[in-house]
Amino acid sequence: MRPSFPLVIVLASLSLFGCATVKVGMGTISPFQSIADKGDVLVTIDTTKEKDLAQALLGSEELSKRSTRLSVAFKPMDATYPLDTGKCSMLALAEGDYPSVLVNTALLYDSSYAHIDDSYYQKGETKLGSLSSNIVLLTTGEYYASKKKVRTGPVTIDELTSMQMAFHSMALYCEDPITMFDLGLGIPQSVVSQAKSILIFLDATSDGRHVLSARIVMDSPQLADSLNKLVRSAYVANLRRDKIQFSLVELKKMFTIDKDMFTITEMNISALQFSQLIGGVSATV
Q1: Which ranges constitute the DSSP H helices of 18-142?
Q2: For position 272, what pLDDT does the model report?
Q3: Among 136, 150, 267, 282, which has the minimal tally of Cβ within 10 Å of its Cβ?
């Protein structure tokens, strides 16, 4: 079920308040370090870099201005491929300038939300509550368990990986995946299920396009080599179909392997590929 953000009813009041940043969670980089388990697909978006996307997801220009990061962990209920967010439970964190008092006031006076135990608010399967003056928690799971998971861990994403994810406009991560979003790379489910981890970065370019970088660790060097050939062949086929010139030297730099790790460096993706990927995320957020 698609969660909504009833904070829009107090936007005028929000503009009068600031907030001090309060650290939440055990992670040293971001609270998103604790929200995903093995097999979960984590998506984190730097909403200061992806302003149009932030507004589309949050449904308000004012809310998007106050947002700094939006992170969602999808827990698949089965191995449907590509990932069907309608068959996932969800734990999300909205980070930004969201004063707790006003968030609670907004929810308290929204009749579509039930106030549960003077602690959080619920609408359908979605539970929503303020963890601090700069973090709002949304979950379709059990609220108190989700809150504890964010606050006390365990941390499931290491510091280096988290720093890399936080640096880019948008990042996706999954350890021991059973499914994944359609990344437009021509990777079948049989290959996804043989990956130890998938880490994807997306960044906007100055001309409004996006580039994709990736680090995919496979179960063996042989599988990494096969994935390299598969993705490179699909990419070249697309270039030829669209009559775009390419350099074999540049392709060798773009697609590399190191033992069991396959790496993509700044591969241009089409607007359609980006919109399809974002569509999968925004269907739930």
Answers
A1: 51-58, 61-66, 100-108
A2: 81
A3: 282
Tokens of 134: 């700069």
257 and 263 in contact (C-beta within 8 Å)?
yes
**Model's pTM, two decimal places?**
0.88
In a 13 Å sphere around the CA of 42, the CA atoms on its Cβ side amount to 28
Give the pLDDT confidence of 246-257 residue by residue, as tens digits: 999 999 999 999
By residue count, the chain amounts to 285
Strand order in the sheet with 210-218: 114-116, 120-123, 126-132, 135-139, 88-96, 67-76, 41-46, 170-175, 195-204, 210-218, 261-269, 255-258
Structural element, H or E, at residue 162 = helix 159-167
**Mind listing the pLDDT tens digit for each residue in 121-136?**
999 999 999 999 899 9
Category of 39 on φ-ψ map: left (φ > 0), alpha (ψ -120 to 50) or beta: left
Spatial CA neighbour of 136 closest among 76, 92, 84: 92
In order of 54, 170, 224, 270, the CA distances from 46 in angstroms are 9, 6, 30, 20
Look up residue 268 and give its two tokens.
């241009």
Comparing CA positions, the residue from 14, 2, 1 lying closest to residue 63 is 14
